Amino acid sequence: MNKTIALIPGDGIGPDIVNEAVKVLNAIANKYGHVFTYKNVIAGGKAIDQFKNPLPKAQLDICLHSDAVLLGAVGGPKWDNVEPALRPEKALLGLRGGMKVFANLRPAVMFPQLKKACPLKDEIVKNGIDILIVRELTGGIYFGDRGTSNDGNTAWDTEKYSREEIERILRMAFGAAMQRRKKVTVVDKANILTSSRLWRKVAEEIHEEYKDIELNYLYVDNAAMQLVRDPYQFDVIATSNMFGDILSDEAAQIVGSIGMLASASIGNGSGPGLYEPIHGSAPDIAGKDIANPLATILSAAMLLRYDFKMEEEAKAIEAAVNSVLDQGWRTGDIAGDVEAVRADGKLVGTREMGNLIVKAIES
User: Is residue 289 pLDDT above 80, yes or no?
Assistant: First the structure.
């Protein structure tokens, strides 16, 4: 099978980790008889430097004419003082809007090999952590009306959702839950927000089509507490743009390392999806061969699964990651006792971790 993948290395450690994901994708292509062609895209801070625009139309068009898009990271303190309309993060909003990807799927899984890195007590995580957060991506307060008063002393941002935006997210959440533990938790703030009450109304209507699914609701503040009190209670979380942004980072921390979490941003299937690790650009370690590439590699597995329908190939990457972790190989962020891992000769950098995953796939 021939497929084109747009690569957005971006800023900071983005090029480091994307390079390793490409090595892994090439190993998959060689093993399973595929041909992956890559097109480089400039976005984020590098695009600001080169084009004075975080996402030029020509760069977005490359993404739109590809079969899938793999992103490293964008942003960094170098661009902290540019005007708001030109911030590197605007590239992410532009990609999501331009590609019409409306749902972000963020699996938060505690790898058993990394249990010691989990900050929660053993009795809390004895059943493991396996949560899928389904976050709405193109609506809500990040895209609502906003403004500042003429005197600069008042500012506002508007949370706004339509039935259509809510329904398509909830259908994705219910559909995912059917393949998992059949439980959906809608996280909102319905005691305060009118938009959240619409989320609940639509959820009740869609639930009629999914009688096998257990549906419950939590206010976002309670949900944040419950994630650290009893994470196993969660299967699929469906929530708004802002709440999902916050809770997914909390979920990343409780599983041990934000460097292990992949994500997929997908739409209705008519165009390419956007795949990226959820960590930041970490410019302080860029180019030093110490960043963890596993979240990006696992994002590549999601790319194969969702956009290319290559389930066997996706599982091969995931199995390779598990095999490498089973053997004790660690980057610094997931090492726990770094000096002990170093003494065992198992502490590796970005490139060697990528090489280990390739070897596991080839074996």
Answer: yes
